[in-house]
């Protein structure tokens, strides 16, 4: 960018360029060095050209902007120089690995101060590593990526506050270019095939499975888990004769949930057809025999193959429901199932990492095609950070959604509880956050480190009990809180939304989690 003579002019030029690029949401964290940009985005908000959110914690701000981006808004996060910039990094990495066009706007000292002990000055060019290019303004051109995050680093000098009032120019919003569809490639029928739909696979994976008559193994956040081919307990069927007889897999999106699926995709006797996924590293972590961007079939495969999977799925699902119903006390799977049933057509569900997304994978309700439910998660790096912030952002980005829900574990909730700190004038969405509170990290009890021989250090190293009183934590931010101990109480809470952001705490016991998980994995058709 050339021409701007003052920091205020530069800031106004940057904000105008963002408006012209379609940015409609800005999440700002307060600072001095970013004041020129802060005043400029405020003027744009006052002119009704964008919506401005303020969050004191840059981690929250960045994940809020990520959640907005996740549901299709064009969002930017803005902060001052120094460690504030580093606090954006988790969300920026998640955006990079999921191909989300998050705009990251960081204020910096002028280049002449770099390498000196000037206050609050570090090397911000390339601060997010090789995955995210920095545009160092005004020296570089302002160019926004559309397949991942863009880092705009703005060198700002004093004076940092404007001398006049700015009325941003009316801008022509660009029409979102429709991507040109790739050419169709025909997959031959014949091999016993399943479709694996990982995170963000989208409807094409479902459409292919339905047209071919293939079983659909779709994760809850795939965007494909609707219709009659989606199998509920697919991951319990892979270590069976049926699973072992798979000859070909068409894999789309980013599968991350389970080792049985990873093992299937890595089998030497299975042909893997990969549909490229979004994100910084599209290469698959398993051998791929063929890359097909837009696979199609001519005709349907042997219906007996799909029917065998459906029958096995019904059998295991019945056994799983009986097993869970016989458990003393509320199980996390029953919580996930109730939440899944509570997502109406047009509703949003943001799912936390760790056990909740995996529990949901086993019990998610059958969703009809076309009901436009949106089930999403931060599966790019499966972090437990920023989940509340992301859910609030996604809910804010869906003003016409029918209901907004989030499901997460207690450690995930605590990790981002600062997200409940909103200023009195901040716009708040309706969002019901269901926390599965088992007082620690249950997932580890189901992994190698949960084996009896590691019991001695387990709680200190992995279980991490905290004993936090979530009601008091919510009270501190005046967030309505509801504790439930049964499915009936949970369903009642879900059916009685308070309005605004609320927390429903479902208390469960993780002491028997490893045993419960082993009995579930042992189920067979
Ligand atoms: C930022 C981040 N830190 C640590 C981890 C490792 N991790 C994965 S799951 C988990 C515990 C999650 O506990 P909780 O949210 O209560 O879920 P639970 O498994 O108990 O249902 C941790 C620490 C991670 N994935 N991301
Ligand atoms: C706890 C972390 O992430 C791990 C969580 C589960 C994964 C797993 O193995 C699930 C087992 C299954 O259901 O099949 C595990 C993995 O992918 O190997 C993740 O590392 C963590 O520390 O990030
Ligand atoms: Mg937990």
From TrEMBL:
Reactions it catalyzes: isochorismate + 2-oxoglutarate + H(+) = 5-enolpyruvoyl-6-hydroxy-2-succinyl-cyclohex-3-ene-1-carboxylate + CO2
Identification of the protein by name: 2-succinyl-5-enolpyruvyl-6-hydroxy-3-cyclohexene-1-carboxylate synthase
Domain Thiamine pyrophosphate enzyme N-terminal TPP-binding: 10-125
E.C. number: 2.2.1.9
UniProt GO MF annotations: 2-succinyl-5-enolpyruvyl-6-hydroxy-3-cyclohexene-1-carboxylic-acid synthase activity
Membership in a protein family: Belongs to the TPP enzyme family. MenD subfamily.
Key words, A-Z: Magnesium, Manganese, Menaquinone biosynthesis, Metal-binding, Thiamine pyrophosphate, Transferase
Free-text comment on the cofactor: Binds 1 thiamine pyrophosphate per subunit.
Keyword Transferase: yes
Cofactor(s) it depends on: Mg(2+); Mn(2+); thiamine diphosphate
Subunit note: Homodimer.
Protein task: Catalyzes the thiamine diphosphate-dependent decarboxylation of 2-oxoglutarate and the subsequent addition of the resulting succinic semialdehyde-thiamine pyrophosphate anion to isochorismate to yield 2-succinyl-5-enolpyruvyl-6-hydroxy-3-cyclohexene-1-carboxylate (SEPHCHC).
Annotated signal peptide: none
InterPro entries in UniProt: MenaQ_synth_MenD, THDP-binding, Thiamin_PyroP_enz_TPP-bd_dom, TPP_enzyme_TPP-bd
Thiamine pyrophosphate enzyme TPP-binding domain ranges (all copies): 364-495
SUPFAM superfamilies: Thiamin diphosphate-binding fold (THDP-binding) (SSF52518)
Broad class of enzyme this protein falls into: transferase
Pathway of action: Quinol/quinone metabolism; 1,4-dihydroxy-2-naphthoate biosynthesis; 1,4-dihydroxy-2-naphthoate from chorismate: step 2/7; Quinol/quinone metabolism; menaquinone biosynthesis
Annotated HAMAP family: MenD
Keyword Calcium: no
